[in-house]
Amino acid sequence: MMITIDDNRKQFHLTNGKISYLFHVMKNGHLGHLYYGKAIKTVGHIADFQRYDIPTPNTTHLEANDPAFTMETTRQEFPVFGATDFREPALGIQQANGSHISNFVFDSYRVVKGKPMLEGLPATYVTSEEEAETVEITLYDAVTDMKLLLSYTIFKDVAVITRHARVTNRGEATLILDRLLSGSIDFPHADFDMLQLSGAWSRERHLKERKLESGIQSISSLRGSSSHSQNPFLALKEPDATESTGDVYGFNLVYSSNFLAQVEVDHYEQTRVSMGIHPFGFQWKLEPGESFQAPEVVMAFSPNGLNGLSKQLHDVYRNHLINQKWLDAPRPVMLNNWEATYHDFNEEIILAIAKEAVDLDLDLFVLDDGWFGKRNSDTTSLGDWFVNKEKLPNGLGKLAQDIRDLGLDFGLWFEPEMVSPDSDLYREHPDWVVKTPGRSASYGRNQWVLDFSNKEVVAYLYERMRALIEETQLSYIKWDMNRNITEAYSSTLPAAQQGEFYHRYILGVYQLYENLTSKFPDVLFESCAGGGGRFDPGMLYYAPQGWISDNTDPVERLHIQYGTSIAYPISSFGTHVSATPNHQTGRTTSLSFRAHVALFGTFGYELNPLGFSAEEKVEIRKQVALYKQHQHLMLTGDFIRLKNPADGNEAAWMMVNETGEEALVSHYRILAESNPGKMKFLRLKGLESDAYYRCQDTEGVVRHYYGSELMYRGIPLKGEFNGANGELSIPMQIGDFQSEIFYISKEEGEV
Under a CB-based contact definition with an 8 Å cutoff, are residues 562 and 631 in contact? Predict the structure, then answer.
């Protein structure tokens, strides 16, 4: 049993030997938070966890004869506003008389083996009941006749707890829900640094850190997507915590639309973390008998720093969020034609590129934007998902068959959520566009957004995409979304329900994904939103990999991949080798440097192979072989960050398998250094101290080390091996953008 309940004390303890999470029912019937952190054993009493008998001056209190019991200073599980708690709440309900005051008290609980699914929303799952346990707490407000269900799931093998909330209107009056967060937790102190993943288009998810201060610090999105600017993830860490030491708490929302992730430090230095759908612009009309389901929040804990936190999140997403079909199935090494041709191509050019892809030992050819309607630029034809016969006169099905006959799988780019003003679809269905009556419609990339809260839109796009998948026997789809929502309004919703638009929109997106992935389980979906504008757990549920940024410059990708790896497994990273000079930054880098960065992800190419030299082709074949040789590590190994590129001139990371028997290590030096002076070493992690390892470097040179050498002294970087005396000379590092790859495997015996 991972969930133990003391019915006499109404105390709940979730523990799997890695973490403990304790809460109880307070004397007013609300849930009080007691403890969250490393696994502990208790003797049953709770007096040392939270005290309710210490009066606090100048506070309001619930009972006349008990001035010490106040919600203002109490740590809670799901707080409401207005009844002695002045911090921001997790719940807000507008009642017929205009009141927002509620009083949800404990009613009942049930423990469930495994984990129930969420209706209409992506969420973590289990494949057998033994993998998790769930406790569902039912709270009840008698005045509104409303039920609140709080669900807590603890997994057997990871230090992760997931939470979500659902409200049900059991009364006879219509209620307006204007705030329902997925989870809230109060910590007893504020001695934390807050980490977030922030950026913009082409520089997504850079790691940012700040010390908590009194008041509110938050990240959020109101763009209709999780956004390039902020990711629905935050972490609290001890101030001296590092990549490998110290306590860290991570919070990640399984949701792809407007969100709020907030940390509030009160006047007594207590910290409240809240996460869920952004309440701004949100309202949900609850008729009698109706329910509303909030998305899931994932909470992970590590006593071993940020790398430890990442391991917990990576493991839970790989094993309990991403579709099991793609858990350890090899991902195809692809060639995407976008940067090779942009919109300017024809059938002859595409087939010529595909033939080169075969010669380079690639697995998949992906036809990007420009294959449909009259799409010769980004000004037209989105929504007209019919083949452009001027470019492909023999049709898309014939092209797909020709490419399969070459020995490649075939993939297509779609942007189903968008429509061009100059398109047949818009001319036929102008009411399908998101825009507010009487207001001008803003533009973004010469396109508008289709109203996915309209079921007709979702049904139409399903039929179009289904027909194309069947015609072409697609094995891969890149699903793009290149602009955010403005003038949010649905012509199908009444005025009183326009506050439901954003959530209904993303439910429509999830529904289309669900319909397609259920009908075509063998099609690999890759999500994209102008690059990394919707890279979140909600998308990973349907698309096991995502294009992490439109910026393919390898130096920029070091920062993007480093930050993204804090929360997300690298098996979900879309990482390609692109052209040089890079199309986003103009930077010139070597083919090997670009490949060494892209190897740590779902490897592929985004360039024109028709102009490759014989030497470049040989190098690419070696890169492809290297990736395929070690792809099992990318899919199932533990990713460990060794050097942060934001801290200096170097970056380094490694993948190591669960037993520590093999690892793939990469080191990157960004700019050349004049007269470095002495040998440099890179300390590794995750190996066995007493094990004997074979180490092969980028040039194929093999050396042997003990694990203790590699972890405590380190592996020598850019050295020249002198076979005569067995010593390493002063390293030779010439030129900018240098990289090394080391494959390390355990061997029997010793020197």
Answer: no
